[in-house]
């Protein structure tokens, strides 16, 4: 069988491979503490469940408009307009079967083969995958450790811009690092976007997943709403990871093309789930707040447990459900230089399962520090404390 050549450029979300390895280890009778996958082991709010169930009972089980049901598009436009200090209407919103489809459709809409696209690295691996699969040139930019969190390495962004650069992908708030852009970083980035006539994908999957302060969007910068597509997902705030519903929000000219791609890809997003999401947006927000409160408790427990281990240091982000600890000293003390050897050694010695820097893009020249990622969205506080206690014993033995 001859597989198409383009498939060689298609990457994957390698955290799922770690999940499979952890499951196999557990199947052998071992205890696993799952910090590897950004899933949420909390129930979807009853408002969403009831709204979707009513829609099924009402017969909302057939096709619907390819851009999404009008009521949801209008409600989401109003909700995001209020939180983003901008003015969207339903014409700026096209529903998607999850947050992830926006990435590929944004690239398909605006990138020609050979165009260059700036993307964050470490970052969500699907950016790199979709750029290269669709014939673009993936150009990474990085981060540096600041005083309170990771910050943009603007030198790497500016070095990466050429006369072939067409797009920039911004993940704020960031997976895997938990990094959050300051207003000053948004302002500086907006200057570069205007200067080089770029278009931006603002992946804001974790915009509402914050424990203190207020999220700000890149579209709040002057002229950026006209150049930016926002990736929105219901997966995080409403614990709907398996429901698969999100949206692309941006200029009508771009959104209309994305809606046309919908017709070719999946016809439409799930009909009755959209009514569930509508009920979630318009209903009592106490359950989403309870999800956030629980995640904050998990963040605090995870950060405290990791920072108590000699050789591990982690920032404590105000948002997302990820920590990206520096384990350089610990790996040196253990005599381990290979990321995967270190990850597997920890898993087999303690049952603690996590991903590492290699799962979030190809390492760049000059990288010396070693990092791993802990997702605390799928593990309860008592298990966090127990697992990290075992990790501490192993690390300091």
Characterization of this structure:
With 397 residues, this protein is of the alpha/beta class. It folds into 2 domains: 5-43 and 287-395, Alpha-Beta Complex (Aspartate Aminotransferase, domain 1); 62-282, Aspartate Aminotransferase, domain 2 (3-Layer(aba) Sandwich). The chain is built from 13 helices and 14 strands. The chain has helices spanning 15-27, 46-57, 70-84, 101-110, 125-133, 154-160, 183-196, 252-265, 271-282, 286-307, 328-334, 339-350, 381-395, and strands spanning 33-34, 93-96, 116-120, 137-141, 143-145, 150-152, 165-171, 199-203, 228-233, 246-249, 322-323, 352-353, 355-356, 372-375. The strands form 4 sheets. The protein has a 7-stranded mixed beta sheet with strand order 2-10-9-8-7-3-4, sandwiched between helices. Helix 3 crosses helix 9, helix 4 (101-110) crosses helix 8 and helix 10 runs parallel beside helix 13. The protein is globular, with a radius of gyration of 21 Å. The chain starts with 14 loop residues before the first helix and ends with a helix.
Spatial strand sequence of the major β-sheet:
2-10-9-8-7-3-4
Query: What name goes with the CATH superfamily of the largest domain?
Result: Type I PLP-dependent aspartate aminotransferase-like (Major domain)
Number of discrete domains? 2
Tally the helices: what do you get?
13
Shape: globular
* The CATH top-level class label of the largest domain: Alpha Beta
How much beta, percentage-wise? 5-15%
Number of strands: 14
Looking at the structure, the CATH topology of the largest domain is Aspartate Aminotransferase, domain 2
Oligomerization state of this entry?
Answer: single chain
State the separation between the terminal residues, measured CA to CA: 52 Å
Structural class: alpha/beta
Mean pLDDT: 96
Query: What is the percent of helical residues?
Result: 40-55%
Largest sheet: 7 strands, mixed
